[in-house]
Specification:
Blueprint lengths: L14 H14 L7 H13 L6 H14 L1 H4 L4 H14 L5 E7 L4 E8 L2 E2 L10 E6 L3 H8 L2
Helix pairs in contact: 1-3, 1-5, 3-5
Length: about 150
């Protein structure tokens, strides 16, 4: 997957967030080799039972993932990065939506995370992408159910 953008410029993150990101990258690594349908099934199960993370939480997690992994920080690292962010939010007992899509002329594919339909940490160009797979988080429904 690819999106023409500059390498990520992550913000400062704590050492704890860095270790958490390393664990998430390690746990999410096998997902990179699975077919999209299997990734979708696995992530649906992960995001089903936890409330939504806040935008700030997701941005810190995303920054930590980009800080500790050169591959996740690169232009070609969107799949690895987005999967690691979903797993990291799951480790914190929160959820986030995972999406993949494409844009034409020139053709390019991309994977990203969203909260309430809004991409987190992505350039404005993301609006040009058509979603192919979207794994929603059910966090808002959970929050309403339990009064969070």
């Amino acid at each position: 997957m690819d999106i023409p953008l500059f390498p990520e410029q992550p913000g400062q993150v704590s050492n704890g967030a860095r270790w958490h990101a390393r664990l998430a990258i390690l746990l999410s690594a096998p997902l990179n080799w699975l077919p999209p349908s299997m990734i979708e099934k696995i992530l649906s199960r992960l995001t089903r039972s936890y409330p939504s993370a806040s935008k700030e939480q997701v941005q810190v997690i995303r920054d930590a993932v980009c800080t500790v992994s050169k591959r996740c920080r690169s232009q070609e690292g969107c799949l690895r990065r987005s999967l690691a962010v979903v797993v990291a939010t799951w480790l914190k007992r929160r959820s986030v939506s995972w999406c993949t899509g494409y844009a034409l002329e020139p053709f390019r594919a991309h994977a990203w995370v969203e909260l309430n339909g809004v991409p987190v940490g992505e350039p404005d160009e993301i609006s040009l992408y058509s979603k192919v797979i979207s794994v929603p988080n059910f966090g808002e429904e959970i929050a309403e159910k339990y009064g969070e």
